[in-house]
Amino acid sequence: MPLHIRTSRYFRRDGEWRQYHHRGSIDDPSALAAYQSAVGG
Q: Domain range spanning residue 31?
């Protein structure tokens, strides 16, 4: 199933850059419903 997922990543620098948060979302409601159905959610 093709999906278009928008993601955001947040980084902090504590001596070196480290990722501290990653979030993804499916914008199309029908695609989200199909994905949830496919994975049993």
A: 5-39
